[in-house]
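Review session, final week

We close the course with one last complete record, chosen because it touches almost every idea we covered. It is Serine-threonine/tyrosine-protein kinase catalytic domain-containing protein, a protein from Hevea brasiliensis with 141 residues. Go through it on your own first, then we will talk.
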Amino acid sequence: MSFMALNNATDSFDKHNLIGFGKKGKLYKARIPYDRLAAVKRNFEPKISNFGGAIVFSKRQDFYMPKETVKERISHPSTTIDTLYRVVDKSLIGRGDDAKIFGLLDIARNCVEPLPDERPTMLQVYKMLIDVKKINNGFED
């Protein structure tokens, strides 16, 4: 896509289309042809970081976002293990995967640090996920 096409798709990188901030730039929502949405990084370096490729959503798809999102609950400076416990579906607790659940929440908490330089790299996240995968009933295999 040309810069003009990206500029049009993001309404001139309007602040209302700002999705978030990363280590290397701002991320904007863009409307592309065929009624699709895409994410565009302002530094124009294309990057797919979800290991499965980009997901394209149609305009008709709805999303539920509670007033207080999980991100807001786990990224607060005073986040404790007790706070993390409150974001977990209680029906999952006590089934033998508690250590994995809290390991994943801890990774998520690290990924939403306010300062980009304090967030782990994707390689670090990958290694942490591998470590969580090795956990078996609170003990590493």
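Two points worth writing down before the exam:
The chain has two domains: 1-63, 65-141.
The CA atoms of residues 29 and 39 lie 5 Å apart.
Good luck, everyone.
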